[in-house]
Structure formats: C-alpha cells, structure tokens
Fold these 2 entries.
Entry 1:
Amino acid sequence: MTVQKILWHPDPHLKKKCKLIGSVDDATRTLADDLLATMYDAPGVGLAAPQIGAIQRMFVMDCTAKEDDAHAMVLINPEIVWTSDDTNVYNEGCLSLPEQYADVERPAEVRVQYLDRDGREIEEQFDGLWATCAQHEIDHLNGKLFIDHISGLKRTMFTRKMMKMKKERNRDE
Ligand code: NI
C-alpha cells in the first residue's frame, strides 16, 4: 500500500474518460490498495483512479469516517443502472480541489453494477452520502468534476483559486 500524490485541478488526467479494466488481477488490486491508502491518508471519503494519474475505471470509498478500513469499498468498472427521481443536495468537496466546496444536486439513490477486488459481479443500491459519493467518483471516471455541475462563473472562480493554490504550494508541475 503506497500513499500516492493526489493530482490537483486543473490537470489533464482529471479530464480523461477512463478505460475499462479488462481483468481483475494483482496489478488491479495494487492500484486499489494504493487508492485506499491515499484516501485514508488525505483523509477523504472517496478517491478515483485518475486522481492519482491512473486512467482506469476504478474508485474506492468509505463514508463511515472511521479510522479502520472495515467498510472500505473497491468498485471496478462501475456503472449506474438506476437512479431515483428524488434528489439530494450535498455541499461537495474533492481531494483534487482542496478547500473548495459547492452545493450539488444529484439523485438521492442509485443502483450500481461493478466488480469487486476479487472480480465478482455485484449490484448494490446506495443512499445518503454513499449515493452522492458514488456518483461523484463515477463522474471522475468520465473526466467530470463536481464543479462541472455548477454555474460557469463559479467554476471559473474555483479554477482560478486552484491555479493560485498550486503555484503557492509548488504543485504547479
Ligand atoms: Ni472528487
């Protein structure tokens, strides 16, 4: 398990449509372990592979905000197969946009098909923060950030702030 550097917006890796993972093997599980280590280290409740520069369809999440990883989830090739008509508004943040938050409205419940770290096919329904997090992370796999859900004016403001922060903290490479 290696804590990796989290890429900060704006970064071309965060704009890419990620590739399907052909088979779940040891390399896939190493990526999952690195994502989990990096997410818990941050700390955060979710992290997608492109955020550490891996353009692959995988994310991890744990919305319990506990120190242990008993509820750590690894979702490979996730696909939303159903969304509720009810919506929820959460004040979202993102490890690729530290200290930036905005209200985003999304379906309150989603059903997701995915492969787990052993390659088993799973279909699971999420609600509450788990539903928001799953949708936020799946967006990452399609090159989309939470700021793409808000007005263009606000998005430009967030991007400017991030460019400044990257420069100040020497993350501008
Ligand atoms: Ni994010």
Entry 2:
Amino acid sequence: MTTPAVSTVVHARAPGKINVFLKVGALLDDGYHDVAIAYQAVSLYEDVRATAADDFSVRVGGTVELSRVPTDGSNIAIKAARLLARATGYRGGVRLHIDKHVPVTGGMGGGSADAAATLLACDTLWGTQLPREQMLALAGQLGSDVPFALTGGTAIGTGRGDQLSPALAKGQFHWVLALAEFGLSTPAVYNELDMHRDRHAQDIFPATTTPSVDANVLQALRAGDPLMLAETLYNDLQAPALHLQPSLSAVLELGENNGALAGIVSGSGPTVAFLVADHDGALELQTALEAAELTVVRASGPVHGARILSA
Ligand code: C5P
C-alpha cells in the first residue's frame, strides 16, 4: 500500500476480444445467462494513462467513433477506479485519459478493456498492490468480459463469462473486422434471444443451464488451424443481433463471397469479424470490403492481456 509509481503518469494497455464461440444457456434469476465462451484477445488496444488527482475524471480520444462514450461517472473506467479505491481504502482520485481503438458498443469488449487497463494503471499509480485474484474479482464486478481483458490470450469463460480457464492456442489467427456506424446494446441482444426462445418454446430444445465449448473449437485453437476454426465459429447472439439489425446479413454475405473463411457477429455485435487464412488474405478482403464502402480494420490474435507499458 505504500509504493506509488515513481513517475506521475502510468500508461496501461488492454486488448479487445473476439468470441470465437459463444453459447448462451438459460436465463437465470439474476437477469444473467450462463454462457460458454471461447475468447481470443486481438491486436486492437485501449490505452489508459492515469495521473494522480484529488477527484475522478476521464477524457477520451482515439481512432474510433467516440460519440457514444460517456465522460461522466457512468464511464466504466471511472467505475473501475472508484471500485479499486473503495476496495483498497485509497483516499485520492485519478485523472484518466483513454485512447480508444476498439469499436465502441461494437461487441469487442472495448469498455471492458478500458476497465481492465484502469484497474491496472490505478493499482500501479496508487501503489495499492492488489493481489491478482482480488483484481480479477473486482473485474468481474465491473462486467462479465472485464476479467478476460485482464488475462488476454485465449481462454474459456463460463458462468457469466467471467470464470476463466486458459486454453492452448498455437500461432496467430488473422481477422478482418467490419465496423458498423451504429451500436448494439448487449442487454437488448440477450433480451431479443430470450424473446425468440419464448416464442418458439414448443419447437426448440430448452436452453441448457450449463453450456460448454465444443471440443472442435479447442482442437482448432490448439492446432492453430484457421480452416478448422472457421468451421467451428459459433455465436448464439448472432441471430438476435441480425434480427435487430438486418443490414448485418449483407455484410456477412459480402465478406464470405470475397474470400473470408467464415464470418461471425462479434459478441452482441454489431461488429462483424471475418476469419481469413493469413495476412495477405486479410489485405485482400479489406480492399474488397472497403470498395463496398465499409469501415474495416485488421487485427490478429491471440495477444496478451492488460499490462503496464510505462510507470
Ligand atoms: O456483465 P455485463 O455488464 O457486460 O452485462 C451486460 C448485460 O448483458 C447484462 O445486464 C445482461 O443483460 C447481459 N448478460 C447476460 N448474461 C451474461 C452476460 C451479460 O444476460 N452472461
């Protein structure tokens, strides 16, 4: 508790993610669903710079559309800093500057990465030295995907998605991401799935309470084989996301007709993630999608989780 960072600015970085597999179980009494997720952290990063201050504030910049990012106490980075201060008894505040590169409300965990990088930056700035297990627990209180933004790499998430176990992965997978001009609210997409399941309760099997990740996904990740992984990409939130935003179907089709091995809505969307064979394949697909006037970024994964870059 007594070794604050030497420099006045601490710089932390955390990655966005793609869910290469996301199975949604039954709706629980607490409003959450049991899920089984295979997460891959990808090379789009959120950079958080933390400076000591008496109160809590945040400024936001970056390469993505920022109009949907709040800069008051509802920003998840402020919530993360306040939670850490409360948990450790730290009495001061922090001034945060976030440089965003993960699409906002895009289903790629940008807000979660902000929270993870903020926890780490403030812990270093304030010298609070929170044990890793406790930091993961605080991360889980902030959001289901925040623990994964701390750990990064490739992992299986169960429970709300916050109970993590590492998964073996070989090599690098290459992705082309088609960004949308609109956002999708995660609760709204889950809700759409629940309504669909209610409407068709007679025709579909009831959702299992403890879903699991298919063994084929784990095998494809272990083998580092994009063709195999393309066969196993799966997302229960894709259908409800497409229902809420039907224009995404044409995006998926465009990518798959232009060389993608497979396309999938990322998390609750609306970002569409295309898996390609290699770097050249990514460049070719990017060119084709940009010719159709889509906004596109390339990323690869897995990459490591939140870390301090300078202190
Ligand atoms: O945990 P997080 O804040 O990211 O969750 C946002 C919303 O997404 C929740 O309020 C809930 O509606 C939905 N959700 C869910 N089941 C999960 C994770 C999220 O229903 N496992």
